[in-house]
Every structure is written in C-alpha cells, then in structure tokens.
Specification:
heterodimer, A: 387 residues, alpha/beta, GMP Synthetase, Chain A, domain 3, 8-stranded mixed β-sheet, 4-stranded mixed β-sheet, 30% helix, 30% strand, globular, B: 514 residues, 5-stranded antiparallel β-sheet, 43% helix, elongated
C-alpha cells in the first residue's frame, strides 16, 4: 500500500511543469547594455540593446545571411528606470534577462543631474551584475546605438572591448557603492564620425574614449581632458599599456615609452595629516625613438628615465589639481586616510569635501626603469652617421 | 509487489533426489534404465557378456569418447585372460580396479547412475553384483580460448574465459599454483544440474565471506541456471539497486588478482563470465590495463575515467539546468551561440535532451543486436538522421547533438559495462529533476544517489569503502594507482590479517659509495 502510494506520487510528478522560473533560452532576450538619458518632462529614457540570436546564423553553410543587423535597441521612457523597463517588457515577446548586461552608459545630462536612481535600480535587481562597466558620454548616450560595429558582430562587443584592454578607466557601480560620498571618476566616450573602407568609404559613427568625468556626490561635476585622464588612470592604479612620450635631451625629438608594469603605493604622509605620499614603480619598454641620442649608453638611458618620471609626475599632478578644483575626491584619498589613520578620518569625514579642496596635497615619487630597448639599440638610420 | 521480489519457483523435484536401489538383479536394472531413458534416441544401452558375466553398458553416444572407452576398458573386459571366473572378474574390476582407465567411480544408487550418464560418464553394471562402475570419458565440442571481446588491454594477457567451467578453472590454476586455492563445487538447477564453483584463497579470504557466499548460493532453488546472472540476482544484498553488487569479468588475470586480494570468485558452467564478490564502487573504475601500464600513465587514465563518469551522469542535466534556469552562468559569447542554435527548436531543452538520449540508447541497442550483414545501415542512419538531418530540420540543436555524443562516449569509458549501464539509467531521472528544478534538482539527484551509495553493501561490505568509511591504507588504489613497489599490503577490507603482499624497497639499486 505504502509502496503503491509512493509509486503513484512519483508518476504524478511527471505531469507537473516544474519551477515557475523555468524559461527556455529561446524565450529570453538578453540585455547587453543599458543606456540611460535624461528625457522630456523629467522622465528618464532607458535604452536597452539586445543581441538577436535568431539572426546570428551560426555555422549554417558558412556565408552570412542578409537577415538584417544581429542586434536591436529599444528606448522607453518613464519616471524611473523600473517604469521604463516594465513598459518595455509588456511590449516584448520575450522575457528580458539582465544577467548578461555588461555595460552601463549614462548621458552627460543625466550624469550631471545625478545617478542615484540608476544605481538604486542596478543594485536592487538581483540578476544584474554590479560589476557593470560604467561610461559617460558627451551628449546623449543613445547616440552610441548608431555606431557601426566594424570589427565585431554587435555594438556591445565593441564597447566591451574598451573595458577589456585597460586603456579606459574601468569604473563599476560597485566602486560607487564603496565610496562614502559618491565621489568617483568615470571614463567618457565620445561619438564621432570616421571614414571606413570596410563600409564602402562612407562616413560612419565611431565611438572612442576621451577623458574622464569626475563625480561628486553621485553627480558629474567636472571633466578631465584626455591628457589629465591618463593621470587619473595612474592614480586609480589601473595603468597598463600606456604610452609615455618624452623629448630627447639632445635634439628635442620624440621618444616613446610603453608602460609594461606600473604599481602605485599611496600612503598618508607621516608628518603632515592631509598630505599623501604616492610612490610609483614603473617598468617601461622603449618603443620608438626619433632622436639621435645614443641609446646604448647607460647614462643616456638614465637621463631619459628622469625625463619620463617628470612627465608622469606632471600628468598625475594635472589630474589631481583638476579633481581638487571640483572638490571631488574622485581618487578616494579619503579611503586611504580611513584605513591608515582612522582617527583623523573620523574627525574630518563630515567636511571632507572642503578639506580635500583646501588641504590635501600630494608628494609624487616616480621610479621609472627602462627595461628593454627592443630588437635594436640605436635607431637603424643612425648607422650612417657613425664613422 | 510481486514483480520486485526474488525468483522463487516451485520445483518439480526436491533438491536432494531420492535414492533408488534395485539390488543385484541384472534384468530389473536393465529395464529400469531403459525406462528412464525412454524416447531418448541418443542413449546407448546394450548388453554384452565378458568372462561369463553379463555386463550392461549405458552412455550418451554424443557425449563420450567411444574409442577411448574401447581401448581402455572394453578390451580388458572381453579379454579371456582377464579373469577365470565370475567372482575373480568382479573382484579384479571393482576392488582391485585393474583397469588402465584414469579414474572411475563405484556406485550403487541408480538415480546417481543416471545423473552420471547424463554428465557424460559411461556406466557399466554387472550381473550378480549391486555395484556399478562409471567412467568419466566425456568428449564434446567446446569453444577454444580466444581474446576477450569486451575487456581489451594493450599490454597484459590476451586470453578470456570460455563456456566450459573446467577450462576456466584450468586458466586460474595455471596462474595461481598453490594448494591454498580452493575450489568448492555445487550443483544448481533441478534440470540443468549446472556446476557452480566457489573459488577462494584459503588464509587470505575472510572465512565469513566464504561462508556467506556458500549460504547464499545454497539457498538458490531454480529449475535451471543458464548463466552467472541467474545467480548474481539471487545473491545481491540490494536487489532493487541500479548498481551492480558483483563484478563480472571475462579475464582470468582479473579473477586471479581478485583472488589474491582475498575476494571470492563464483564460476558457473556455461558462462564465460564469472562473478567476483564482494565489490566496491572504485573497483569498477579500475581497468586491468591500469596494472599493466606504467603507473604514471595509469593514473592519468584513471582520472580521465573518473571525470568522464561524472560527465556521463550529469552533462545533459547540467546543460538543461543552465539553459532553462540559469543562463547567467553561461559565458556571454557561448550563450549567444547556444541561443542562436536553439532558436528554431520547438521543444524545451528537457524534451530535446530526452529525445536525443533515447534515440542514442536505441541506436546503441540496435547496433548491438543487428545482424552483422546490415550493421552499416544502422551507423549511416544514425549519423545522417540524428547527426545532420535533425539539426538542419531544426528539430534538435547542434549543441545538444554534441552533448549527447560526448555523453555517449563518456558512458563507454567505464571499464566494466554494468556500471556503465547503471550510470546511463540514472542519467534520465536526473535529467527530469534538473529540467524541473534546475541546478537545485540536479544536486538533489546527486545527493539521493550518494545516500543510496553510502547505504549500499556488497556482501556486507560498504560500497564506498575505502572512501566512505575512510581507510587511509586502502586509498592507494582508488584515486591513485600507486607504483607496484608501494603496494605492500593487500586491501584490508576483504583480506584477512595476512596483509603483507610484498617486501620491496625503493630504490632497488644501492648507491655507489665513491
């Protein structure tokens, strides 16, 4: 009797449908990027980009079928992000899945107004990764969707590329969460036009990185230029593959160095409370020389190293002073203070913003080593000059 | 539920047949035997007179060596010089055994005589004496020893068991030349009278296990035993478990190794596959090859086997769970290609997987049973219909075909096919669980299997030894196959306290002192 009961119960389970959360992969639409702009009447315009797997004909007879573009974008507006998103979901045949979103791009207007609403949605939604890559655009974020993906199949993969090779500053919602006051630095994307041979010589929309936006209390307050922006990368300790161009001491021609490895150590200074010692250890490759300076001599290399150190110091200085001017502790020196000197931090946390503007100073020490000169010593054309 | 219970049939004869004694009268016995073998055309019963004594000779003509009988027995009997009187004749034959035949038995029970005749003996009975002589002069066709069909190795011996039990025992005796190797014979099956031999090494095998095997086999009452599987299902500790509780092999070297570990082997006449008990799960993952290859490579292959065992059990379920419940766990690029491939498929992933897995199983079974002449048709049909046409028609997706074929390959990597069968069977419930509950269902399925395995016993030995009741000393041959010079002790869970196996020290060469 008991066995028969269990047996019939097991049989019954075969007719059940399973969990409510069961959605087949071809009934989902995967968001790849979230674009947020300021809309009309105080609304927020949310644009989501989706790759379209039904148009990614894989493997079938090799050639690409002319089905149209393999991605789609949709824009809906609402008082906040959830409203806009729900309007969109109603109109879509597939269930929107946020799990694969990798990008959050915010229009400049929206960024200047404040991004708390956006962060609130992202942090609360469980399937959204808080390690999204954040970008700010000049103008509207939506303009990016006109970009023509030349090197990849879809736009989102191009944008992901920016975050993969650490040329642009990678900032995530998690970084904002870790701050006390919402001061942060975010890379800026610029949308331009460029002639492309691959698109039959037409001028198409091209997206590149340009400068850094400084946030203060979750609001964008200032912009760093591209040059200063690279200083920001140094201070955020995420520098890789950067190019340092210096002038040769002999003939003022350009010499290029590529950064191999760079490590920053930031400490509050022992003597003065609001001064920070920033130590950089940099290893460089010499990548190009237009100068006649004799690179086989150790002393000349040392000279070049000194010049490069000075150049880097100036860049960092530039980024720092720009952030000071805006009163935004975008590089989170407050964090270092709270870690190393919690007592001073406790006293100064309330008016940290003004303290930062007035009192914080940096002592920048750069220790740069040119490790390799490539496959030649001096430029090949200098041979003719030597006797 | 009657269909789950053990086979118990009412037998026409009881296990110990009644004895029949018919006295000294020749004609009575002659008639009785004639009557017993009524309507058996292959029986030969005739009467002759040798040395003034009436002799009756009974045998099955297709099962005995008549010329040998003629040469070794009959020529003596009919020789006038053999004896001068009836009494001398009987005395010389039955008491002094002055016959050059190798062995003969003296008996008086007629029932026993019939049994011996059926086993290929030649029976002689005499006028005026109750005693009869039986000569074991069997001669019948048997298959020659050939290479193993299922358990192939690269190095190592190439001989496999055959159907004849005596040949099989010879194969073992030739490997283990010790009087401690005991072979106890039982006869099972009321009609088949199948010989069953329990083999073990005295002093190494635990006496309790031998006694248990004896008892369990002794309990079996069937009308016929046609293979070792008839016995296997009757001596299992857990008849309902999908896991095999005895090891089957067709290789004499595997049996010899098992004997040396202290395990018990059950040979059944007519089966080329003896049973080895007790067995533990990890033994099914030890191929004989592991012990013939160098240990470095053997270890690599063993890990590969373990990994593919898991793949074979869980891979389709994992795919179903990820695509229907947790797409976030799939890397974005991979997800896009999977989604693109699945876009036209009309079924849920679970149904798709079930269709493909069942088709694969059907193909495998058909490929096994199909007559050799049309075997190619199956493979063409399988490859074309399932591999290509189904994908092009959009009925199944290409990733699913990859997963099913990988799983199919993985399920054959288990060296002993019966564990492969259990894994293949258990795959389906886990697939349904993960199709309904995602990774959660998959984990529940795994836990249930684990709980069952921990509970399972083979002849009283926990199925997961030496892992679940952990025995550090016996781990040397589970996840690893340590080199031979480290296998100094036999596994303690089967053997007796005589654990020492070898006395090797490494390095063997003493270092030069310069």
């Amino acid at each position: 009797m008991n066995k028969a009961l269990i047996f019939s119960m097991v049989i019954c389970t075969f007719f059940l449908t399973g969990c409510w959360s069961r959605i087949e992969i071809n009934e989902r639409a995967f968001v790849s990027a979230i674009l947020v702009d300021k809309g009309k009447n105080g609304n927020i315009d949310v644009t989501l980009t989706f790759p379209l797997p039904n148009r990614l004909a894989t493997g079938q007879s090799g050639g690409t079928l002319s089905l149209g573009k393999p991605y789609a974008t949709l824009t809906y507006s609402g008082a906040n992000i959830s409203q806009a998103f729900h309007k969109m979901q109603v109109d879509l045949p597939r269930k929107v899945s946020f799990g694969h979103a990798k990008l959050l791009i915010i229009g400049q207007e929206m960024a200047r107004e404040g991004i708390t609403k956006i962060l609130e949605f992202i942090i609360r939604e469980p399937s959204l990764n808080i390690n999204l890559a954040m970008f700010v655009t000049h103008g509207k974020a939506k303009n990016i969707i006109n970009m023509v993906p030349t090197f990849e199949r879809s736009q989102s993969r191009i944008l992901l590329g920016f975050t993969k090779n650490d040329i642009a500053l990678l900032t995530t919602p998690k970084d904002f969460l870790e701050t006390v006051n919402g001061d942060m630095a975010v890379s800026i994307l610029k949308v331009g036009k460029r002639k492309m041979v691959s698109e039959n010589g037409k001028k198409v929309v091209w997206v590149g990185t340009d400068g850094v936006a400084l946030f203060k209390n979750y609001k964008m307050v200032a912009k760093l230029t591209s040059y200063e922006g690279r200083g920001a990368l140094w201070l955020r300790n995420t520098i890789k593959r950067a190019l340092v161009t210096i002038q040769s001491p002999t003939d003022h021609k350009e010499i290029n160095l590529t950064v191999l490895q760079a490590k920053a150590k930031i400490h509050p200074s022992k003597s003065e409370p609001y001064t920070f010692d920033v130590h950089f250890n940099v290893e460089d490759d010499l990548s190009e020389s237009d100068s006649t300076i004799d690179l086989s001599k150790e002393t000349n290399i040392n000279k070049l190293e000194l010049i490069a150190e000075k150049d880097i110091r100036e860049r960092i200085e530039g980024a720092f002073t720009a952030s000071k001017k805006a009163g935004a502790d975008a590089f989170q020196f407050g964090e270092y203070l709270s870690w190393y000197k919690p007592k001073i931090w406790k006293k100064s946390v309330r008016n940290w913003s003004s303290l930062y503007q007035d009192k914080v100073k940096l002592n920048i020490y750069v220790d740069l080593k040119i490790k390799r000169r490539g496959t030649e010593n001096n430029p090949f054309w200098t041979k003719e000059l030597s006797p | 539920m009657p269909f789950f219970s053990k086979v118990k049939k009412q037998t026409p004869n009881s296990n110990t047949p009644e004895q029949v004694f018919l006295g000294e009268d020749f004609d009575v016995r002659y008639k009785w035997l004639k009557q017993s073998f009524n309507q058996c055309f292959d029986i030969t019963i005739y009467e002759l007179t040798a040395n003034r004594t009436r002799c009756g000779i009974v045998y099955l003509q297709d099962m005995v060596d008549e010329s040998l009988f003629d040469e070794q027995v009959l020529s003596y009997l009919v020789n006038e010089d053999f004896a001068s009187s009836h009494n001398e004749f009987i005395h010389k034959l039955l008491e002094l055994k002055l016959i050059s035949s190798m062995s003969s038995s003296v008996l008086t029970d007629m029932q026993k005589a019939v049994e011996l005749v059926l086993d290929g003996n030649i029976l002689i009975f005499f006028e005026g004496d109750q005693r009869m002589l039986a000569f074991p002069l069997q001669k019948f066709e048997k298959r020659a020893i050939s290479e193993p069909a299922n358990e192939n190795v690269i190095r190592g011996p190439r001989e496999a068991f055959v159907e004849d039990i005596h040949t099989n025992i010879t194969l073992i005796r030739r490997k283990i030349k010790s009087p401690s190797l005991k072979m106890e014979q039982l006869v099972l099956g009321d009609y088949t009278k199948t010989k069953v031999v329990i083999g073990y090494l005295e002093g190494i095998c635990k006496p309790e296990i031998i006694e248990e095997v004896r008892q369990r086999i002794g309990r079996i009452q069937m009308d016929g035993v046609l293979g070792s599987s008839y016995i296997e299902e009757n001596i299992d500790d857990f008849p309902l478990s999908p896991f095999p509780q005895s090891q089957k092999t067709e290789r004499p070297d595997v049996v010899a190794a098992a004997l040396l570990e202290g395990r018990v082997v059950i040979f059944v006449d007519g089966t080329p596959i003896p049973l080895i008990v007790p067995v533990i799960l990890t033994m099914f993952l030890q191929s004989p090859e592991d012990y013939y290859q160098r240990y470095v490579f053997a270890n690599f292959v063993r890990w590969l086997r373990m990994a593919f065992l898991v793949i074979s059990l869980l891979f389709p379920s994992f795919y179903i769970a990820l695509t229907t419940f947790h797409p976030v766990m799939i890397p974005s690029d991979l997800l896009l290609s999977v989604a693109a491939a699945r876009d036209l498929v009309p079924f849920p992933a679970l149904v798709e997987a079930l269709i493909m897995e069942l088709t694969f199983e059907a193909l495998r079974e058909a490929g096994l049973r199909v007559p050799k002449a049309i075997g190619q048709a199956i493979s063409i049909l399988g490859a074309l219909v399932i591999g290509q046409a189904a994908v092009q028609a959009g009925i199944v997706s290409a990733p699913m075909v990859i997963i099913v074929s990988l799983t199919g390959i993985a399920s054959f990597i288990v060296p002993y096919f019966d564990l492969g069968f259990s894994i293949r069977l258990l795959r389906f419930p886990i697939m349904i669980l993960s199709g309904s509950f995602g990774i959660f269902g998959l984990m529940i399925g795994c836990l249930l299997i684990y709980i069952h395995l921990v509970h399972l016993r083979s002849f009283g030995m926990p199925y997961l030894t030496p892992i679940a009741p952990i025995r550090a000393n016996d781990l040397k041959d589970t996840f690893l196959r340590v080199p031979w010079w480290l296998m100094k002790r036999r596994p303690s869970f089967v053997g007796t306290n005589d654990h020492k196996r070898s006395n090797l020290n490494y390095p063997f060469v003493e270092e030069d002192e310069d």
